[in-house]
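Question: Send over one sample?
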Amino acid sequence: MTTVYLKPHKEESLKRFHPWVFSGAIARVVLDATHKAAAPEEGELVCVRSAADEVLGVGHWQIGSIAVRILAFGVETLPADYWLQRIRAAYKVRETLGLVQPDNNTFRLIHGEGDFVPGLIVDIYADTAVVQAHSIGIHMSRNEIADAIIAEVPQVQNVYYKSDDTLPFKAPVEGNRVGWLTETTGVESQDFWSKENGLSFRIDWLRGQKTGFFIDQRENRALVERYAADKDVLNMFCYTGGFSLYALRGGARSVDSVDVSQKAIDLVNINVAKNFPKATNHTAVTADAFEYLASQKAQNRTYDLIILDPPAFAKHRDAVKNALRGYQRINAKAIEMIRPGGILFTFSCSQAVDKEAFRLAVFSATAQVGRKVRILHQLHQPQDHPINIYHPEGEYLKGLVLYIE
């Protein structure tokens, strides 16, 4: 196995179990005697050692600022049953969390570094697992991962691979970035339903965002249900209507769902019809969020409860300043439309925007509008999107629930 030697004193973060080795920390790379390449191949397993030749761990080599993602610490090679071990441990956690229930067969099984497997995402939808690779090393192991999922997760019969948007763009990739990793029995995602807390959702992993659904808002959707009774609700950036369905079940007087994607709105209507076939208090609108809010303000339309769950405004640190301006602008527009005594659920899923900066952007929005505001809840990602205590960068979802006088 190729060995990566670090510069002196650069092993400290690995001794604290942080799973990333940055390229600037590497002193030299020593190739295996039979290896004829000038450098490790992307995705190759490498052993990382300190300058003093101490074994630090094994991980995937990757071209870029993060050169190695550690899969196991303190060993020179991975055990033969590594993937079985990791899938088994992750599933046990989900069982402990009470997520494996007859009325809930939707959950995240593997959350990258949060489950000690950097670069891997696995979401479970009923009897199907959807796998995403964020590194070439995970891509190269996709079939072993699929076998381990089938072996260790009783409900899963099919594994679908969807990494067309997550693998490094310029990386040499052998094999398909998308497709089935198991033999299927005619599963079609457009006819596929999954349950979350008793509500049914059509999951489109072929054409949908991420793996087809935003599982990370499950607990926050349930909180919306608690507040929705007898309220006029606006769900902005609604995608397939997760918050809308919970609000309807919570007894909302009316629910407006808004998204710029017509495909998303079509799925919202399908999901509402499935769960509430007699509902007459739901309206789905295809519109740009800023334009919609401006038009509703012009009509003096107000709401008791508004949900703002936009896509990532900043996908890298260079975009943070513009993102914060976007958060301030959208929150100010929403607060203007909330009736006295109303509630705002507002979120950021941008990992580059920390919770303090997001909170400051929302504070600036409330000050701009001049309303009295209380923070009722500070929200984050759910238990099946765990944060590795040694990898705080894994905290990405942040949210506030505000009471507006």
The first helix runs from residue 12 to 15. The mean pLDDT is 92. The CA atoms of residues 287 and 368 lie 25 Å apart. The chain has three domains: 2-73, 82-195, 214-404.
